[in-house]
Design brief:
Transmembrane segments: 12-34
CATH class: Mainly Beta
Number of helices: 3
Distance between the termini: 95 Å
Keywords: Membrane, Transmembrane, Transmembrane helix
InterPro entries: Cupredoxin
Number of strands: 25
Organism: Saccharolobus solfataricus (Sulfolobus solfataricus)
CATH architecture: Sandwich
Strand order of the largest sheet: 4-20-19-22-25-15-13
Protein name: Terminal oxidase subunit DoxC
């Protein structure tokens, strides 16, 4: 018979204890693993999305790809077809009509990290779904019954620019423009979300109303972090239909690694990005986004856009992701590490109220 001394017995008991502890932890968290991405039943009719919505054609089929660091979203159904400047994908936005539902099927894009889709409680349902590489995830988005621009975001740290991976659900009237009552309800509902399920900057774009003038001026000033007026997305402006809108944008020259427009060449030399456009873009009732005006980005000067507000909503600024590559002193490589991706900042929306 082999004798086991006290030290060996203690080590054996310790190993058994650790194994049992692991088993308990795995058992306790197993259900979360299977539902980490949101299971298919969550988007089936009769669960969150009512059968009546399906029968009445109020369900939009959506496909979301999570990149580092933006969402690409394709929509079809419910009188909405995604079309952003000719592309079938929106970048960091969704479009719907009041009272509809978006049936989202979600994927992590190839070679991307785990992300998250978080849509707070604006209506009756919160979406908080992990988007895991190699898995298919689902989320039923309950669209509010009022028009407005409602934030959603990436709730998972997938790299240093994750806090810029924020989006807006643009809820447009079926026709016409937002009513004054809708504007008031939208502001109330947004403030409620910002104090409960949507707490903390930069996820709370302020709402600025210009409904007492037919010649509003919207001033947007970027900071060292390449965001407008300290918010991602930037402020949501509300203007009157058919008003003559002036939008002033000022962007200082990027000069630090806190700014995604401060990029690096393949040799490790920093430079400010200049091959991108900023502008004003109309969002129409059917989900199409068309160009109003745009110019190459310019630094250290005020860029002014003027337009007549006849669409139900507009996007402003830099509405497509910008490639970013951190390559300080040419030290970025697969051995020491790489940090690159596509980032969206310097953008926001303008909603149009019935005059």
């Amino acid at each position: 018979m082999i004798k086991v001394d006290r030290k060996e017995k203690f080590e054996l008991y310790w190993v058994i204890y650790v194994i049992v502890l692991f088993a308990i932890v795995i058992g306790a968290t197993a259900p979360a693993v299977y539902t980490v991405g949101g299971d298919l039943s969550s988007v089936q009719a009769g669960i969150i999305i009512p059968n009546t919505a399906v029968n009445e054609g109020k369900v939009i089929q959506g496909t979301l790809y999570a990149y580092q660091y933006y969402f690409a979203i394709k929509e079809n159904g419910g009188s909405i077809t995604s079309n952003e400047l000719g592309s079938p994908y929106y970048y960091n936005i969704m479009v719907a009509h009041p009272g509809q539902y978006i049936n989202l099927t979600m994927y992590a894009a190839p070679h991307m990290a785990t992300a998250n889709f978080y849509y707070p409680d604006y209506a009756t349902h919160v979406d908080d779904v992990q988007i895991v590489p190699g898995l298919v995830q689902y989320a039923p988005v309950v669209v509010p019954n009022i028009s407005g621009a409602f934030a959603f975001l990436n709730g998972e740290y997938n790299g240093p620019w994750f806090s810029y991976q924020e989006g807006l659900l643009l809820v447009l009237p079926y026709q016409g423009y937002m009513s004054q009552t809708d504007v008031s309800k939208y502001i109330t509902q947004t403030h409620l979300a910002q104090t409960s399920t949507l707490v903390g900057d930069p996820y709370n774009p302020p709402i600025v109303v210009y409904n007492t003038t037919m010649t509003p001026t919207v001033d947007l000033v970027a900071d060292q972090y390449a965001i407008f007026n300290n918010s991602v997305p930037g402020p949501t402006a509300v203007v009157l239909a058919n008003s003559n809108v002036t939008v002033n944008m000022y962007i200082p020259t990027p000069n630090s690694d806190h700014n995604f427009l401060y990029n690096y060449s393949t040799s490790g030399t920093p430079y400010p990005v200049r091959n991108v456009y900023i502008g004003i873009y109309a969002v129409w009732w059917n989900g199409s986004i068309t160009l109003v005006k745009q110019v190459p980005i310019q630094y250290d000067k005020t860029i002014t856009f003027t337009f007549t507000a006849n669409a139900p909503a507009y996007l402003y600024g830099l509405i497509t992701p910008v490639y970013y590559n951190y390559n300080f002193m040419n030290m970025s490589n697969t051995l020491t590490g790489e940090q690159y991706g596509y980032v969206m900042g310097l953008w926001g929306t303008i909603l149009v109220e019935q005059g």
